Amino acid sequence: MGFLTGASVDTASPPPRLFFPSPCGSTAAFAATPVTPMAAATSAAAAVVATRAVARARGAAAAAIDGGAPLCRAASRLAAARGGWVSVGQRPRWVAHGGRRRLAAAATASRPTAALAGGRAETPDAAARNADPDAVAVIVGASRGVGLAMTQALSGRFKGKIFAACRDPDSAGALQALWQFNPSRLNIVRADVTCEASLAAVAKTIGPRIDLAINTVGVLHDPATAAAAKDRQSTAVAGMPETAIARLDPAWFARSVAVNTLGPLLVAKHLAPALAIYASSSASSRRNGPPERRRSVLATLSARVGSIADNRIGGWYSYRVSKAGQNQATRTLAIELGRRGVIVVGLHPGTVETDLSAPFRRNVPEGKLFAVDDAAVRLLDVIDSLDAEADAGTLLAYDGTTIPF
After folding, report:
1. With contact defined as beta carbons under 8 Å apart, do 122 and 387 qualify?
2. Across the strands, what pairs with 164?
3. Alpha-carbon torsion, ordered 81, 83, 89, 91, to 10 deg
């Protein structure tokens, strides 16, 4: 497949495809027209109106990458400037002056790992998984925030194929830009964790093997829903965490559970067959010789506020309850899927500079608000340090410490 290597394009084999399984209600999948990176770049460039805003954004992106900033951050600036997806390297004139080499390096560079608690380090299984060109990873919620940053960071340390799933690939500008620098290994797929048909289609597209699956999807607030509730002058405050029981909105509570609790279960339901390394959960299946693959991992982003033991200030009913339910789901899945060689774990990323945390950063202690790219590396380091016996079914913080349920 065509891919960027340094400053050249390898077109010795057929160009890659973008897979966009069809929307909810159908399990049919289709492949978009194959494009090479430079063909996509040229086509996109022809469609861009040369406004001053885009020019400024393009310059800022170039400067950011020259300074070592992550590709996803720079690409996001470009996408926001023109209201659609733009490849960071879309302008042939800009790429020709050494830009492609810098951009490709930024897209695939592996950042230094962070120190984890308790002497945690990369396990032999994780090292083998990351080095295996036949391994398969899936990131659900890959179009922005932590999911996008984890997709970029994973492409630097993981040598296999990556499926990046999001609700609307057509508007995922930064993810589309990242694809241009990993087209031979990165596949973009459409998935909605509240739509089971879309998850079934994704599972069919991926195939029979998954070594690592990460679900980053979650909902804490929704400004649009909150604004609508305010217009209705409702006593309940839909779309925002509740500070008192009087503010509980049944519809918002149900949506929180659908995304934060049921969503991870549906992801597990459809990806579990490919994650499993044993033919069945029976003891005889595990005894009869070594498995064909090393243990796989199913990780889901959770939150400390879902911990019942750690709840000391109350409030946030919808989010707390939905995340507590997710933690119970993690423990239960770990028991069942652990019998088939899958390590299931919950991850707490801390407070990260994303849209999800934006309204709630005012009281975050100094040093506890993490840049999204740093958070992504920390979480991947925790995943690479997982112990099948000690960590399965637990909730682990970004530093590798265990959070009580």
Report:
1. no
2. 139, 188
3. -80
Burial of 28 (0-12, 13-18, 19+ CB in 10 A): exposed
* Class of residue 271 by CB neighbours under 10 A (exposed 0-12, middle 13-18, buried 19+): buried
AA identity, residue 63? A
Which residue carries 């029976």 as its tokens? 282
How far is 309 from 18, CA to CA, in rounded Å? Answer: 44
Confidence (pTM): 0.72
For the beta carbon of residue 85, count every other beta carbon within 10 angstroms: 21
- Give the model confidence (pLDDT) of 143-182 as tens digits: 989 999 999 999 999 999 999 999 999 999 999 999 988 8
> b/e string for 203-216 if b means 16 or more Cβ within 10 A?
bebbeebbbbbbbb
Give the per-residue SS3 of the chain. CCEEECCEEECCCCCCCCECCCCCCCCCCCECCCCCHHHHHHHHHHHCCCCHHHHHHHHHHHHHHHCCCCHHHHHHHHHHHHCCCCCCCCCHHHHHHHHHHHHHHHHHCCCCCCCCHHHCCCCHHHHHHHHCCCCEEEEECCCCHHHHHHHHHHHHHCCCEEEEEECCHHHCHHHHHHHHCCCCCEEEEECCCCCHHHHHHHHHHHCCCCCEEEECCCCCCCHHHHHHHHHCCCCCCCCCCCCCHHHCCHHHHHHHHHHHHHHHHHHHHHHHHHHCCCCCCCHHHHHCCCCCCCCEEEEEECCHHHCCCCCCCCCCHHHHHHHHHHHHHHHHHHHHHHCCCEEEEEEECCEECCCCCHHHCCCCCCCCEECHHHHHHHHHHHHHCCCCCCCCCCEEECCCCEECC
Say how many C-beta atoms besides its own lie within 10 A of residue 197's C-beta: 17
Q: How many residues comprise the chain?
A: 405
pLDDT in tens, 296-337: 999 999 999 899 998 989 998 999 999 999 999 999 999 999
Beta bridge partners of 299: 214, 345
Q: Which amino acid is at 387?
A: D
